[in-house]
Amino acid sequence: MSTHLDSPGSVLAVSRSPLHAFSKVNQPEVRLAAGVGIEGDAHAGKDVQHLSRRADVPPPNLRQVHLIHAELFDELAPAGFTVHPGELGENVTTRGVDLLSLPRGARLHLGERAVVELTGLRNPCKQIDGFQSGLMRLLVGRAADGTIVRKAGVMSIVLVSGIVRPDDVIGVELPLGAHEALAPV
């Protein structure tokens, strides 16, 4: 069992790339495949696809779908950074859902059918400064208690296949019991 939250959230954009490139190209729709990720995306697969994480025996892919909240782009603008959906490598750009505060195991219902389960935080890497110099310092910081704060989005796996489009509604389902904070995956 779980708890459903009323969510005013929506999908702003969907993106994919068949190449292991930093940014992804916006699409009119993407198909999420259960246990795999975004069809046609370089990071789709049952085993990890990120080049920096490949091994002789690759671990399960906990990074099938990358989501970022568009509110981050709004936060970056006053510091002089212009970022558009897909440019930080995310597959789904959201608005109205506080992704970073959700617990591990939270499920996002995207569009009519698709469901993803959050596995952890994206750990920002130095490629971000290659995209726009100085941007990394705004995506990783420290909270008042000294803990590291990562703002570069969340990672998920696909539980239920489906088509996702811009303007689709996002439903949030929280796991029951104690909530585990998201950690980098």
Keywords:
3 helices; 185 residues; 34% strand; 8% helix; nine-stranded mixed β-sheet; three-stranded antiparallel β-sheet; mainly beta
- Count, helices: 3
Mean pLDDT comes to 92
Strand order of the largest sheet: 1-14-8-9-12-6-7-2-3
Give the N-terminus to C-terminus distance in angstroms.
25 Å
Q: Multimeric state of these chains? A: single chain
SSE order, as H and E? Answer: EEEEEEHEEEHHEEEEE
Share of residues in strands: 25-35%
Tertiary shape: globular
Offer a concise description of the structure.
Helices cover 8% and strands 34% of the residues.
Overall description:
The protein is mostly beta strands and 185 residues long. Helix content is 8%, strand content 34%. The strands form three sheets. A nine-stranded mixed beta sheet has the order 1-14-8-9-12-6-7-2-3. It has a three-stranded antiparallel beta sheet with strand order 5-4-13, with no helix packed on it. Strands 10-11 form a two-stranded antiparallel sheet. A hairpin with a 3-residue loop joins strand 4 and strand 5. The protein is globular and about 40 Å long. The model has no long low-confidence stretch (mean pLDDT 92).
Draw up the topology in text:
Layout: E1 2-5, E2 10-16, E3 25-27, E4 30-33, E5 37-38, E6 65-69, H1 71-76, E7 92-95, E8 107-110, E9 114-121, H2 127-131, H3 136-139, E10 140-142, E11 148-150, E12 154-160, E13 162-164, E14 170-175
Parallel strand pairs: 6-7
Antiparallel strand pairs: 1-14, 2-3, 2-7, 4-5, 4-13, 6-12, 8-9, 8-14, 9-12, 10-11
